[in-house]
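Our preliminary data section would be incomplete without showing what the modeling component actually yields. Below, a chain of 373 amino acids is followed by its predicted structure, encoded as tokens that our downstream tools consume directly.
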Amino acid sequence: MQNLIAMNHLWLFYPENDIALAHGTANFSPPQMATNLRRSAEILPLWMAGNDDKVLCHGINKNWLDNICMSYNITADVWNHTDYNLLPTPWGWSAASRAIFIHEGFKESTLPDMATIEQYRNLSHRRTAAIVTNEVSKLLDFTIYPPAIEVADTDTLSRIINDKKSAVLKSPWSSSGRGVRFVDHNHLQQALSAAAGTIRKQKSIMVEDYVNPHFDFALLFECKDSVCDFVGYSLFRADPSSGQYTGNIVADQQELRTRIASKSDSGQLSQMITALQSVISAIIAPAYSGPVGVDMLADINGKMHIVELNLRYTMGFMALGLERFVGREAIFYMQKGDGSSQNCPVIEQSRLYDGIQMLTPPGGDFSFMLKIV
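Predicted structure:
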């Protein structure tokens, strides 16, 4: 790949990447909803971008973009499709996202080669989270939930589930919660039938204990030069009545840490971050460069569970990037349809202090919003 020193990024929003990893090929047809999401939100990485970075788009509402850049003092811009002295930076690497940059005219020598892409794909398998969990548990002086078990046949899977009161089945590669199935003894046959299909397509399935979540959060890392660095916290907001995810909280990082520590334990949280950093440095960083989002949960007693690892950007990284654009705590969320009727921001000194700011142009099938709470 090209020299990375002092290069500006060319960002590509590619939410289909997890689906692409499951397929494992450069050419595949993503679900229409995923395609519509990408088209609606191509500009989204603008809010993560550094000075003079570029974002790969195919058409943009120029009036909207000019107003956004002026209001928030953003110097990143849409790529002109002619400047190749940029570092390709997709939402996540796969054979498919690599193919997009080649289609846009980038030389293959400036991109990860296919052997590297396959390494990234193998590391994105959910067995990596199980390996990391096992190694992390050895470095802690407190107990966490055990790692998932990889199973390659339904007979073994049936025996494991029968030994548990309830379990969670996870496809090795899946996207946005898909491929995750909760199962108990009353629904065993239905679960085994679905698992057989997963095993046939992806060679195995992961099974782990069901954990009753009390608090969901994520820890964000970056791998570079064979070292893993901790870069921040991600905290989700949930509907008080249903408990369903409604968005990411955008707030000062110390405030997020305080809230997370209050649901587990401050000393345990620090140990967990240090242990994850060490294990990711040893297992993942030598073969992978880029973001790592570690989804976590704590039960009612504060006992932690490593849910999964995402070797890509996540909405937690988006919330981290948005912190510089808010004057007060906000929530970052997605909704179907055009949210322009809610667009009523109060902006002072390049920060949102009240109301709602659309993060993507009006007119799309989906809208991303930033709302002061």
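The mean pLDDT is 92. The radius of gyration is 21 Å. Preliminary results of this kind motivate Aim 1 of the renewal.
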